[in-house]
Amino acid sequence: PILYSYFRSSCSWRVRIALALKGISYDLVPVNLIKDGGQQFSAEFKALNPMQQVPALQIDGITLSQSLAIINYLEETHPNPRLLPQDPKKRAQVRMIADHIASGIQPLQNLSVLKQMGEKKMEWAQHCITSGFQALEQILQHTAGRYCVGDEVSMADLCLVPQVANAERYKVDMRPYPTITRINKALLELEAFKISHPSRQPDTPLELRA
Asked: Which residue range or ranges hold the GST N-terminal domain (predicted)?
């Protein structure tokens, strides 16, 4: 497999965690979203992913984009360890939380949106993450065990950790979100989350390396 990724992309990080958890080795091709006006806009990368976004994963003779679609494919082709619970209610809760982050928070504070916000980009990012986290904190109080849904790592957790990193990057006050904070801390102790961390990627700038 070949993963096209950017060290700081939260969507790429989700996929790196999934690959690490499932023990799938891959080659990483960095796509710098800032350098050269954004390498994702090159003709070469557009041919690979017409949406001009990372991640993209070439695997089993196909090219997939969209992090949750990629994770779902990995789940179906490499079922262990399981990232979607067998119980239908828990599985629905995992998908709900993953979608809440992947559709309801992250796209609103994505690089392409923040570029349009000009001087108000920090304020906008904080607003989007805060409103999303207020809802997420409430949801997790009903679903969480050690992790987002019960005591097993799931696709929801793969979305949570990168989004908390975004929140910290945009200086969101995390004190109102004790459940999010507790789960995030527990997940960051796991090896798959450590090795996939933005501070430990081949394209991480020296000053941001762990």
From this structure: 1-82
